[in-house]
Amino acid sequence: MTGQILASWRDGSARQAIVDFVHATTTPGAEFVEPADRIATFDNDGTLWVEQPLPPQFDFVFRTWAEEVKADPSLAAQQPYKALIEKDAEFFKGLAAQDPTVMETLLKAFTRSWAGKTPEEFDAQVREWTGTAKHPKLGAPYGELVYRPMLELFALLHANDFRVFVCSGGGRDFMRVLAEETWGIPQENVIGTAAAYTYADGKLIRSRELLGSLDLGAGKPEHIFAHTGRLPVFAGGNADVDIEMLQSARFALLVSHDDDEREFSYTTGAETSLTKAMELGWTLVSMKNDWVTVF
Amino acid sequence: MTGQILASWRDGSARQAIVDFVHATTTPGAEFVEPADRIATFDNDGTLWVEQPLPPQFDFVFRTWAEEVKADPSLAAQQPYKALIEKDAEFFKGLAAQDPTVMETLLKAFTRSWAGKTPEEFDAQVREWTGTAKHPKLGAPYGELVYRPMLELFALLHANDFRVFVCSGGGRDFMRVLAEETWGIPQENVIGTAAAYTYADGKLIRSRELLGSLDLGAGKPEHIFAHTGRLPVFAGGNADVDIEMLQSARFALLVSHDDDEREFSYTTGAETSLTKAMELGWTLVSMKNDWVTVF
Questions:
Q1: Cβ of A198 and B248 within 8 Å?
Q2: Taking CB atoms and an 8 Å cutoff, what residues of chain B touch A202?
Q3: Minimum mean pLDDT among A284-288, B33-37, B88-92: which range?
Q4: DSSP notation for B63-119
Q5: Do the beta carbons of residue A188 and residue B227 sit within 8 Å?
Q6: Which of the residues A199, A213, A227 would you substitute to probe the B interface, choosing the one with the greatest number of B C-beta atoms within 10 Å?
Q7: B197 backbone dihedrals φ, ψ, rounded to 5°
Q8: Which residues in chain B have their CB less than 8 angstroms from residue A226's CB?
Q9: May I ask the CATH class of domain B13-52+140-290?
């Protein structure tokens, strides 16, 4: 398939580093990796699709919260519902900054919104959103805001017997609805922050509890090992919450959002990871220079 | 591959039911199942290998406990170490009976024995055991006490684009050491009761905590859904702790241990599941009558 691979990637050091690494790990020699060990893991928000102005799952959950406030107007006085109604962008900046109080408030509202649902009910809610929601700046449905170069990277890895997993701080079950159609990977290869379920009377019901830790920071290698029994050979991310996952991999790829024309240009929430990339020799991908096509 | 499939299975209703179900779910028609949905899950102890006189992982953990008592003789006065030293079979019967006090005592000792280890240290300990331990009655290494007919069933399912998962109350990481060589399934397809890990300073360390519920009873469909995003189309088990998993599947296979000559004959811990099999039309597999070869 040479010649067709990574077609949306410009010739350059990032593309070359990927091609060289995949070749070295799949060819007999010092760098060879047994097929069983070929695990590749990718963050989602900002690595596989647009995460500005907020990760798309927020757009989804904001709809749910708006309905919850309608059903119980007393919520309007509480965070995060108050910030949503008042369009208080300052409050949500606490998310990018990983402010613990904001994170806890958001998490509580997240788990409240999903508790009591069956998997089918939750899936239907996500599909309703994917079918109707559009990005506020780019005007396209979120499913079209997946980076084509990353899907080509998945294809290259699959063709070389890597198993590709998505590992994101976002909701596991939210992402699983997208996994097969959008990424071409099976639902069981999606790792994320997850609701615990209880099974009773032949039915699964989402609880308010989380299963395990948040899938961010050190939680990423923890979740990846729990799910696969291995740490990644290849990992891709774009933010400070991906640092531990990238450090745990043999090959680390960091997407840099420097393309204000076709996407966004920002370093907020990624400052440390950009420094680490330099220090540790990670492969830095410039969206502007390395990608012929973004979407 | 017809003619070669399920070669160790006698012609009979169990074999026929399996062949018919796999054919119906992979052939266009009312029973067809999309490849993406073809999830098959199997219990391990008593379903894939011998579980008498105790599930093999107990033989493994007993060695660890013996070393712990050597290092700290005060443990000898406490359960379950006391029962181990005194060869108190009565105490361990509480396990088959799911006695909550016995279960809790055992679990505490299990988690104590694994805490603080890296994955590599734990794997090495399991490999030391698989390389040396033998079954007390059958005299063979445990790795040879895997049921050949079940491996043939895995092969049939794999050939028909089912993804096969093992889902057992036993330790996830213990089973993962066996998964690829013994069952021919990737480590990430092993679901089990699991230690939580923490990742710090570039290292994963097992904690004393469990990640999620015990993978028994209702815990089985909970774990399967958490891991795969689906419930099984095909499930195999052998005990009361498999009932919920079998009920959650479209096709349920229950292994009946009725072969005192080649293996063991017992119904302890499986009484309710045998009744359910009759009630709900599950496929009952008689080890004695349905299997030409056991190992």
A1: no
A2: 247-248
A3: B88-92
A4: HHHHHHHHH-GGGGGSTTHHHHHTT-HHHHHHHHTT-HHHHHHHHHHHHHHHTT--H
A5: yes
A6: A199
A7: -115, 150
A8: 194, 196-197, 211
A9: alpha beta
**Spatial distance between the Cα atoms of B286 and A237, rounded to a whole number of angstroms:** 51
Q: Judge contact between B64 and B125, C-beta under 8 A.
A: yes
Instruction: Tell the residue number behind the tokens 């290849």, with chain if given.
Output: A234
Number of H helices, E strands in chain B: 12, 8
* pTM for this model (two decimals): 0.95
Q: Which of A117, A188, A205 to mutate to test the interface with B (most CBs of B within 10 A)?
A: A188
Query: How many CB atoms lie under 10 A from the CB of residue A238?
Result: 26
Strands (E), B172-294: 190-193, 195-200, 203-210, 234-237, 251-256, 283-286
Instruction: Give whole-number Cα distances, A179 to A34, A115, A182, A288, in Å.
Output: 26, 22, 6, 26
CB B164 within 8 A of CB B184: no
DSSP assigned state of A187: G
Residue A274 has pLDDT above 50, yes or no: yes
Q: Which two tokens mark B160?
A: 């028909």
Give A213 to chain B, closest Cα distance, Å.
9
- Smallest Cβ–Cβ distance between A228 and the set B187, B226, B244 belongs to B187
Residue B86 has pLDDT above 70, yes or no: yes
Cα-based distances in Å from B161 to B22, B23, B157:
10, 12, 6
Chain B nearest C-alpha distance from A158 (Å): 16
Q: How far apart are CA B110 and CA B55, in angstroms?
A: 14
CB-nearest partner of B186 from A36, A200, A244: A36
* pLDDT at residue number A178: 94
Instruction: Give the 3-state secondary structure of residue B16.
Output: helix
Residue A1 pLDDT exceeds 50: no
State residue A97's pLDDT score.
Answer: 74
Q: Which two tokens stand for residue B233?
A: 């189309």
Nearest to B226 by CA among A204, A169, A132: A204
Do B202 and A248 lie within an 8 Å CB cutoff?
A: yes
| Rounded distance between C-alpha atoms, residue B88 and residue B105, angstroms | 15
Domain(s) of CATH 3.40.50.1000: residues in chain A: 13-52+140-290
Q: Please provide residue B2's backbone torsions phi and psi, each rounded to the nearest 5 degrees.
A: -55, 145
Tell me which chain A residues have a C-beta less than 8 angstroms from the C-beta of B248: 199, 202
Look up tokens 């949905």; give the residue: B37
